[in-house]
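Ticket reopened. Same input as before:
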Amino acid sequence: MIILMKKGCTQKEIASIVEVLKSHGLGANLSEGQQATVIGVLGDKSKLGGVNLELMDGVEKCVPIMHSYKLASREMTPEGRTVDVGGVVIGGKRLVMMAGPCAVESEEQVREAALGVKAAGAQFLRGGAYKPRTSPYAFQGLEDEGYRILRRVGDETGLKVVSEIVSHDEIDAACKYCDMLQIGARNMQNFRLLREVGRSGKPVLLKRGIASTIEEWLDAAEYIMSEGNYNVVLCERGIRTYETATRNTLDVAAVPVVRERSCLPILIDPSHAAGKAAYVGPMALAGVAAGADGLIIEVHPNPKVAMSDAAQQLTIPAYESLTKQIAAVAAAVGREM
Amino acid sequence: MIILMKKGCTQKEIASIVEVLKSHGLGANLSEGQQATVIGVLGDKSKLGGVNLELMDGVEKCVPIMHSYKLASREMTPEGRTVDVGGVVIGGKRLVMMAGPCAVESEEQVREAALGVKAAGAQFLRGGAYKPRTSPYAFQGLEDEGYRILRRVGDETGLKVVSEIVSHDEIDAACKYCDMLQIGARNMQNFRLLREVGRSGKPVLLKRGIASTIEEWLDAAEYIMSEGNYNVVLCERGIRTYETATRNTLDVAAVPVVRERSCLPILIDPSHAAGKAAYVGPMALAGVAAGADGLIIEVHPNPKVAMSDAAQQLTIPAYESLTKQIAAVAAAVGREM
Amino acid sequence: MIILMKKGCTQKEIASIVEVLKSHGLGANLSEGQQATVIGVLGDKSKLGGVNLELMDGVEKCVPIMHSYKLASREMTPEGRTVDVGGVVIGGKRLVMMAGPCAVESEEQVREAALGVKAAGAQFLRGGAYKPRTSPYAFQGLEDEGYRILRRVGDETGLKVVSEIVSHDEIDAACKYCDMLQIGARNMQNFRLLREVGRSGKPVLLKRGIASTIEEWLDAAEYIMSEGNYNVVLCERGIRTYETATRNTLDVAAVPVVRERSCLPILIDPSHAAGKAAYVGPMALAGVAAGADGLIIEVHPNPKVAMSDAAQQLTIPAYESLTKQIAAVAAAVGREM
Amino acid sequence: MIILMKKGCTQKEIASIVEVLKSHGLGANLSEGQQATVIGVLGDKSKLGGVNLELMDGVEKCVPIMHSYKLASREMTPEGRTVDVGGVVIGGKRLVMMAGPCAVESEEQVREAALGVKAAGAQFLRGGAYKPRTSPYAFQGLEDEGYRILRRVGDETGLKVVSEIVSHDEIDAACKYCDMLQIGARNMQNFRLLREVGRSGKPVLLKRGIASTIEEWLDAAEYIMSEGNYNVVLCERGIRTYETATRNTLDVAAVPVVRERSCLPILIDPSHAAGKAAYVGPMALAGVAAGADGLIIEVHPNPKVAMSDAAQQLTIPAYESLTKQIAAVAAAVGREM
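Engineering reply: fixed in the latest deploy. New output:
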C-alpha cells in the first residue's frame, strides 16, 4: 500500500502514521517530494487489521497495490478456473443452464418443471427448499423435504441439483441432497456460512449481495476459497438502485469486470434482476452476449399459482423458446449450448 | 387516478381530499369498502399541477392509472415509431451505428476517426463540440467550430452528424451543421432546452439522466414531443450507483422496459457506462442482444492523446473488430447491420 | 390489498388474478369502474406467500392496505414501547448513551475506554468480540474471550454490555456475558439468527442493513418479535449510496419515519455512518435533534493503534466534550441525558 | 497528481503514460520502487482536459493531490466566507431563515405566507416563479409575474426575495426582482446557467444536484466563482437513493464535509428532502444541530389547495411552532436565530 499525505501535512502527522504502522509490525518507506509526501508500507498489509489509515489526520489517500483477495484473483490463476459439478463443467466453452421453480412446492411441481427444462437443454435443476423471506409470515419453504424432492427428481431426470442454504446448520443435509450449494444475496456476507461451505468442499454458487461491490463479492469468494474449496461460481443477480421499473438493476458489466479481476466463472440470474417474466428473455440474452458462462432462470409449470415470485417465473414453453435464442447468441459470441 | 385512504381514516380527512380535488376542477367518486375507502378522481389529473395527494393526511397511496406521458407512450402508438434522419432509419430492422471521438479536437482527428468508422459500417459520426465538464477549468470543446468540422467531415464521408447541444442559444448553429441534436445526461431535465429542441423539429438523441428513472426519461421525451417534434430517439448510457468498477452502471433492462412502455427507438451508449475501453465490447454486445436499435460508441484515432475520456475510447481497429461481433449478435436476435 | 387493473385489461387477465387468489385461499371483490377495474383482496394476504400479483398481466399496481409487520407497527402499540435493559430504559425521556471501542483488543483497552465513557455519562459499554470483516485475512475479533472481557469490565464499572452476535452458535455465550445482543447491518436479513435471538428473550439492538429500506428493517424486527421477544431497539447507521465523502449516508429522516410507523425505540450510530472522527459529532447532534432515543458511538483510548476502524473512533476527551453538546441539544428538544 | 502503476506493468505502458502527459504539456517524475512504480505529474493538471489516466493500461490508480476547485475550497479561504444579501449575512453566528410557498400562485397567497413567516422571524421570502416540472403538462409557474409578486410582497414586508431561475434568458428579470437567485437541483450542472449567474454578480443559492457528489457540487460552485461572483451559498436538499419513505435522503453529513472542504456557507432544505410535512420539523432540527447556517422551508397559507408539493408544505402555525424549537437547538450549538 502507498499512503499519499496531504499537501502541507505536518511532521507530527507523518510520525503518527509511522507509529500506527510500526505498532502493527509494518515498515514505512518515506518519500518527501515537491508536490507531496508519500509513505510506502512495507510488509503484509493484512496485519493492519481494520485500521483505516485513509482517514487519519494528514492523509490524502491510501492506494492499495494488491486486492485483499488472492485466491479469487485473476493474477493468481491467469488461465481462469472451471468448476466441475459431477461431470458438468462450468466456465468452459459450453454455457451452463440452470432452471427450475423459485420454491419447491411439491414433487409433482418440481418433476414437471424438471422434465420441461431438461428437454430444453438445462443441465441443472434449481429450486428453493429454504426460502429467506422478508416477512416472517411469508412461506418459508419445505426445508429438508424440499432438498429430498430435488434429489429424487434430479436423479430421475439426470439433472444436477443446486439449492440455497441459509444457515450452516443445514450443511449436512444440503451436502447430502444437492450437487451444488447456493449462497443467496442476503447471505453474501454471512461470513460464518461462507467458511462452513468452504469447509464442506461442495461446489458453491455465490450470488452477489444486493448492494455489494464487485470487490466485496470477490472478498466473499475468498472466504470460501481460503478454506480450501476452490469450486466457486459467481452469480450476478442485479443490484439495488433507485430505479423501480425492474426488481433490481442487472449489472451486466460485472461480467467483463469479473473476467478481468478474477479467475472464477460467472453466471447471470435474469429472473431476480427482472422481477417480471417479460423482461427475463432480453436480460438473459444480454448476459450471454456479455460473456457469462451460463444462466440460472426461474421456470414454473404454472407461474400463476406459484407460492413465491409468481411474476418473474417463465412457463416451460417460454423457457423452451428462449433457449433457442440463447443458443443463437451463444454461437455469435463463440460459445455453445 | 385512484386514491386509497388509510384504514381508519377520518371523514374530515376524506373531505379534505375532496376539497383539494374540487379546488382544482376535478370530481371525486367515493367508494367506502370494508377494508378501505377508495376515491376515484374524475377528470384530467394534470389540472392538479404538482399537488401530491399521496402525502396528505389519511391517504395511504395514490395510484396513477395513466402515465403522465402520452405521446411517448406505447399505448398511443402500439406499432412503435421510427425516426428518419436524412434517409437513415432508426428503429427498423437494421441497427444504427454512431461512432466518433468524445470531443472534436481538430479536423484531422475527426476525419481519421470518420474514415475509420465509416469503413466499419457506421452511419453516423458523433463528436462533442460543446462539452459539459464538471470543472470550469477543463477543456470545454471547440464550440461552433467543432460543429463546422463535423459537418465538413460528415459531408466528405457521407456520414450523418450527431452532436450535443448544451444551451438553447446554440440551436441555430447546431441545426445548421448537425443532422441530429444530442441532449446529454446532465440536461435531460433542462426543460427549456427540451422545449426548444422540440420546436426546432430536428431529430433528437435524448440521453437518460445520470440518476433518472425511466418514467422521468419518458416525461422528458414528452416535453420534446409536446412541441410537435416526434423524432426522438432514447439513449441509455448508464446510471449512477454505489459501484465504482465502472463509470456508471449500464441498465440494460431499460431496453425491454422502454419497448413495453414507449413507442420510441432506443440506443445504447456502452462507452460512458463502461468508462474503460476493455469493457465497451461486452456491454455493446449486451445492448444489442437485449434488443437495442443501435449503438453510439466513442472511437478515437489515438485515444492516448485524447483531450477527454481517453480511457473509454476505442481505437479504430478495436472498433472494426467489435463491429464484426456486433453483426453476429444482431443476426442472432433477428436484426441486421 | 387492492389490485388496480390496467386500463383496457382483458376479462381473461382479470380471471387469472382471481384464480391465483382462490388458489391461495383468498377471496376477490371485483369493482369495474369507468376509469379502471379494481379488485379487493379478501382475507389474510400472507397466505399469498411470495406471489407478486403486481407483475401479472393486466395489473397496473397492487396497493397494500396493511404493512407486513404487525407487532413492530405503531398501530398495534400507539403509545410506543420502551426496552428495559437491567434497569436502563431505552425509549424514555432520558437519552441512552452506548460507547466503547470498535473491537475488543485487550482487557486494559476495554477498561480504559469504559472508565472514560462511564465518567462522561454513558450507560452502556459497546465492543466487538466477533467482528464480521470483508476480508478473511482481517482481524476477526477475540471471540468468546472478548465477551468475557466486556462482562468483567461491565461489572467493574456498572455499565451494561452490548455486543454483536454474528451466528446463532454463539447465542448461549452471548446471552451469558452480554446484557443486550447486537445484530449488525450485514445480518439484518439473516432470518435464522433473527429468530434465534427472538427465542433467547434478550434485548436486541437491530442495526439497519446497509441497503435496506425502512420497511424491510421493520420486517426484520418483526422476525424477532414474532418469537415473543418484544425487547427490540432499532439503530440507524447509514445506508449505501453513491456518495464517498462519508463511509455511509446517515438517513436521519429514519427517526421520524420509524416514529410514525413503528412502536420501537431508535438509536443513531454516527460512527459507522461518518467513517471519520471529525464528522461524528455533528452527525450525533443531528440524530438527537431529530428525536433519536440515544446514540452508540465508537470510543477508543488510542484510536491510532486501534485494530479496526481507527479513523472513526473518538478519543476519550473528544467523547467527553461531545457529550456536553449532546446534553445541550437533548435539552433543546425536551430530552435529558 | 500521482499515478500509481500496477504491479508488473510493462515499460511500454509506462512510456505510454509519459507520452500522454507530454502531449498535454506536462512533465513526469518516474519513481520505480520495489512494490510499485509511481509517476508524479509535474505541472497544471487541468491541461489534461478530460484525459482519464486512471483507466489506461498498466495504471492502478491516479491520486489527485489538489481538488479541481480552488476558489470554493477551504484551503484558499481558511476563515470561511459569509454572503451579504442586502444586509442579511449568511454564514455568521445568526441562522438565516428562508420560507414561503413552493410556487407563487397569487399575490394574496404570497402575502399571507410572507406575513406569517416574517412574524415567525424569517429574513427571506422564497417562492417559485419558474417551476421545473417533470411533466410538460404540470403547472409551470407564473414566470415573470411571479417574480414581480415576490418583489412587491418582499418590499411590503421587508423580506429579502430568493427565487429559482431555470434559464439564463430570465437573468435580467430575476436580477431586477430578486435579491438572491436560486439554482435548482436539476440545473446544478447546467454549466451555461452557472456561468451566467456568475457574471450577474447576484448572490446565488446553489442546491445540490439530486445525484451529485459533494465534490461535483463544489465544482459547480467553482463555475460561478470563476466568473468573479463569490456570493455563493450551498443548499443540501436530499439525494436520490433506493429508500422511498421520504422523497429524498437528506445527507446531513454534507454539513461537516462542506465545512471541512469549502469556505462557503451551507443551508438545509428539509422540505424537499422530506416530501411530507410531518418529517420537516425533525429534519430541520437535525440540520441546525449539524451546524447548518440556515434553513429554507416551504410554508403555505393553505397547503391543501397548493398547486405543487402540497404534502410537504407547512402551515403558518406549524412553521411558527417549529421556529421556537429551531431557536432552542440553535442556542444549544452556539448559534442564534
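Chain C touches chain A through 58 residues (CB under 8 Å). Chain C has ten helices and 14 strands. Please confirm and we'll close it.
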